[in-house]
# Entry
Amino acid sequence: MKKTDLVRVFVKGGIISPGDFLKTILTANELGAGYIYLGSRQDILFPLKNKNLQTLADTFQAINTNYDTDGEQFHNIVSSYTALDVMPTTHWLASHTYHYILDTFDYKPRLKVNITDPVQSLVPLFTGNINFVASSQENYWYLYLRFSELDARPWCAPELIYGYDLARMARYLEEADPVGSRLPYHELYQKAREDVNPNTHRIEQELIFPEATSPYYEGMNRIVGGKYWLGLYWRNNKFTISFLKALCQLCLDTNIGKICLTPWKSIIVKGISEKDRIRWEKLLGKFGINIRHSSLELNWHLPVMDEEALEIKNYLVRALDKQDISTYGLSFSVKTRHMALFTSVAIEKVKKENADLPETFNLLYARDFNPNSSEYCYYARNVSKEILPPLLIELSYKYYDQLEARKVPDFIVDNPDSDSKTHRKYQCSSCLTVYDEKYGDQASEIAAGTSFMSISEAYCCPVCDSPKSAFKLISTS
# Structure
């Protein structure tokens, strides 16, 4: 099946109400689909078996949602809203901030736009052409541009842009035809700066990339206030209509206002009350939903509807599982066709010059195993599929070796009072306890110099027992 045989429903920022999700599902079912897919840009896809375009137009006009049936003429806007309450966040970012900014995008982007918090690692920062990344200055955002994959790294604008001017800047940049005009980034930005005249702020410090620890986005997890979030993942990315209808109805019955979609092709439901938890557990049991996949199974990014990539992934997961190897913290892509990489390791199928030649693969990893660096290095070239598992094991050892080397920096050992190295402080939203990376958390046996993002997701506040997601970034020094 080709992408032109699919309907792509744009879920702006990955946020959709249960009512709108239900209408989307029912429309997909009416047009002959028994399941939906989730895309890496937080969109909904389903096969268009009954080509009744009027039904599509009526449904999505009614819920004020755009859709596309022509492949990739338009793109969804990606946001890290889904990471709120799930992972630590920048101190000033809140639900209403995302909603207001997303509401100002009143057009269908042809370029890929990302609006993200650099503290979280659930949503990639630089998979867009226009990437807005939150700064430490309240409601001011870095602007990173990359219109060609030939650019090793995205270009950073020299000023921060005010949040409510992001849509106007993005629209101007798109209408300037940056790909066709081939203007240098600094000239394109200067034209936008002069014509849009956005509210700006000087950049006081460069953006610090978080350590790209792979997120665990599945299962029932506690959040601040005694409520829970539920992450749902399907191994084959085929979410059945029957289950999703029941999920939406339970959201409506228990006053859940939003459903979130992640780039990892999973669904997150936030704000589940303790009194309703048993109803959710019954729903999962009724449909036989497994929410206990290992990180080895979860942390893979595959092209949508690519059976070959899924077969390669399943082969590698089985092979690594037999070795009883840990891949915690690592994430993987299987690249069988063009796709933006946002994982720490990539398995790339080599295009054959002759059909009779055996299949081979390249193995790549991101610099420092952090995909936000946008720089990938070759670990091996033109190897057979059977050689990939031992090479991935070698790479995992390389990853853990470099983690150990960075765990306690020399400046901490030699001089605990040194300020010569950047470190961050995170504060618990419930009791205001501060985790300072410079000193770690001795009560929890976390060494001085340990990055907060590298701590296990099971970490809790030592004072009030709130989960790790309750912490917000309050300073970088």
In short: The mean pLDDT is 89. The CA atoms of residues 104 and 167 lie 6 Å apart.
